[in-house]
Design a protein that fits this description.
189 residues, mainly beta, 8-stranded antiparallel barrel
Length: 189
């Protein structure tokens, strides 16, 4: 049964790549700004924080199937004046995956995306003026998301999406983003 599923997945993948190579591929650049809920591990116990995130996403392919790469950075700061403590957390992330956009009309599309995300960063805990830095190890986690795309010309669109990222506690971080897509010409290999 597992072999049949792998064979079907392989056939579907080949058909998608044949469609992508036969059509005119496009390069798309998306600056991103968003809000995320993410797990911060220090100080103990780990807790979730809501923080701003920014970065950029690059897509290459056709509407039906595109490869994507995304870099984002997030920062948060939490002050605890009753115990004279400040916690600053920084995360850098690189995501690589695939995205498919399903046009609903000439101006509106729905997209789904999936892939893997590498993340690392550091947390600086300052207590009574003494700082302690905790390096967060490199982590690789799967992600999946969906969003809407609103085109306002043939080469520009507004994107709003939500992405779920599995973390080490087998729970999910959530990232909500808003971006503007700029599509550049027909690029053929």
């Amino acid at each position: 049964m597992k072999t049949i599923k792998l064979f079907i997945a392989l056939i579907i993948t080949i058909l998608f790549f044949e469609t992508a190579s036969a059509a005119d591929s496009k390069f798309t650049f998306e600056p991103l700004y968003g809000v995320e809920t993410a797990l911060v591990r220090y100080p103990e116990p780990p807790r979730y924080v809501t923080r701003a995130t920014y970065g950029a996403r690059v897509l290459y392919g056709v509407t039906l199937l595109s490869a994507e790469a995304e870099f984002t950075q997030a920062r948060s700061r939490k002050d605890y004046p009753d115990i004279d403590q400040k916690v600053e957390d920084t995360s850098d992330r690189l995501s690589i995956g695939a995205r498919t956009t399903i046009p609903m009309s000439q101006y509106i599309g729905f997209y789904v995306r999936a892939g893997g995300r590498a993340s690392r960063g550091e947390t600086v805990v300052t207590t009574a003026g003494v700082s302690e830095t905790h390096k967060n190890p490199l982590r690789i986690d799967p992600y999946a998301g969906a969003g809407l795309q609103l085109a306002f010309s043939s080469n520009f669109a507004l994107n709003a999406g939500a992405t779920m990222i599995r973390n080490s506690e087998s729970k999910y971080d959530v990232q909500y983003t808003l971006g503007i897509s700029a599509r550049f010409g027909n690029i053929t290999p």
